[in-house]
Amino acid sequence: GLKRRPVVTTSLRRGLQDASYPSEQLLISGEKETQDQIYFIKQIESLGNACGTIALLHAVGNASSKVNLVENSCLDLFFKSTATMDDPHERAVCLEKDDTMARAHLLAA
Known about the structure:
Blueprint (H helix, E strand, L loop, with lengths): L21 H8 L2 H6 L13 H12 L11 H9 L5 H10 L1 H10 L1
């Protein structure tokens, strides 16, 4: 089959009209220890149609112990600059202002 073992991360895509931001609700209602372990970026309106990029960032950010990023790559630098941020909206604003990540998004989209 197509599945490789071990699976480090997976992503589920839903239409925006179906979304009620359950991940954000989980963060709000979850235990503090769990909240500190989850890497989450709020998909703010100014980021536009970036759901794939956000999903990638969630996957890599939550599997950081299993993923080796290229030193000083745009992903490496982005995660280093947002690792200590607690606010998902603050991470989104950082992504919005990151020209290197914007170029990478446009190349991949």
